[in-house]
């Protein structure tokens, strides 16, 4: 396609972060340093990497991060106690529980225990409901990143047909509801969907959030579709077969350098938003 | 169509109510009478009728109803106080705030004030989020009624393409998420949707929740579609043009006598569920 746009997540991310710098400075003048608490349970190496990346991203903006590392044997009760303590701690503005947790833990109960005011990662059912009903403060970060990219490039959503592939609580479901709130007609697909290529072929906007490497094929696309790849698979490979989809799309996110970096920026933004809320009070 | 099913909401409703009779009896033996508190604000005659109908439906099953009627001039604060008192009242198992409330009231704030344990009408963002994430106890009553009808007639949902027309917090959004959880591929449409007839034509299951009398036309339907009319318009007219849709559908709800009566039964069921929860505690 002519005039094709490669949606540059690194650039969008940089702009979001730049906008946070004066806000963090102002907070510090008021005696408040935004602080994100990250909880890692167990020894999964990728999870350790993600948590470290998030902590480093905080540090570069002058945001404190408090890294809590619990053992592989942690019980649900112990994790809940940790979360409750962080809920009470007025120095902490955001709480991130790194997914996944070891199998003996009730992960949903742990997510739900995060106080709505500190749910900067957008994982609680309450936060999801508020976002869907149009008054949520901290939507799930990957959906928020997708909307941020859409807005940064001034892509039209209203009246468009968006097809979301995936229905997870932190990605497929919230991004479906957020696009619906922006007046898209939204189709949510998943592993039980029949004739997926036929449905994708109708999409003006495609959000891939299925967790299958290079799954979405170019011949599934309508000419000129906008392709947003939120997939993350081993080896830093997206859900979209970039080579075949690139020629058909009017705008597309690469992997890496697409949705991923913006997701972390949204987490930082929400943490700063939350810190500002405490100053207002 | 041959073997066409007229989905009889009165029959489904009766079966739900019959199943509640022994449960109410058992609760009474345990010293607990299920109790639904209904709050009506102002003097809208249709709202008065709805609240009276709900109260009467309770009475016929031996469920207490406590009817609270506040004046047209009620403030948000006064309404919130009423709701908080009902939240605290252990004799009350469910709270229903009749929509709409007078314009000076923040209706959303009032809905959100209902404790999740008593949100038997399924109006809170928390209840919606929990339902969407698969562990809600009291989904919004009209979506619950639609699923009840689907189950009563053993209609297949998995892998089907469901098109929901409407995106309200108590109907379009929750029924979309509930059908998604049943493994339907779900498209949610609304006033900004382009080519609505073309999208409806793909549907195996259509949920009409748009609030426009006789809006959905027979020539929009795929042969053999299942049509669920959750519309309620003045004069007891549905959103579906029944005359033209009847010949095309494999199963269809009439109005009246379709989704409406089951909705009230779901409210009663949720109230009994809630009363049973208090006995368990």
From TrEMBL, chains A, B:
Residues 7-121 form the Tetrahydrofolate dehydrogenase/cyclohydrolase catalytic domain. It catalyses: (6R)-5,10-methylene-5,6,7,8-tetrahydrofolate + NADP(+) = (6R)-5,10-methenyltetrahydrofolate + NADPH; (6R)-5,10-methenyltetrahydrofolate + H2O = (6R)-10-formyltetrahydrofolate + H(+). GO terms for molecular function: methenyltetrahydrofolate cyclohydrolase activity; methylenetetrahydrofolate dehydrogenase (NADP+) activity. Keywords: Amino-acid biosynthesis, Histidine biosynthesis, Hydrolase, Methionine biosynthesis, Multifunctional enzyme, NADP, One-carbon metabolism, Oxidoreductase, Purine biosynthesis. GO terms for biological process: L-histidine biosynthetic process; methionine biosynthetic process; purine nucleotide biosynthetic process; tetrahydrofolate interconversion. CDD domains: NAD_bind_m-THF_DH_Cyclohyd. Transmembrane segments: none annotated. Pathway: One-carbon metabolism; tetrahydrofolate interconversion. Pfam families: THF_DHG_CYH, THF_DHG_CYH_C. Catalyzes the oxidation of 5,10-methylenetetrahydrofolate to 5,10-methenyltetrahydrofolate and then the hydrolysis of 5,10-methenyltetrahydrofolate to 10-formyltetrahydrofolate. Belongs to the tetrahydrofolate dehydrogenase/cyclohydrolase family. This is Bifunctional protein FolD. It comes from Bacillus solimangrovi. The lineage of its organism: Bacteria, Bacillati, Bacillota, Bacilli, Bacillales.
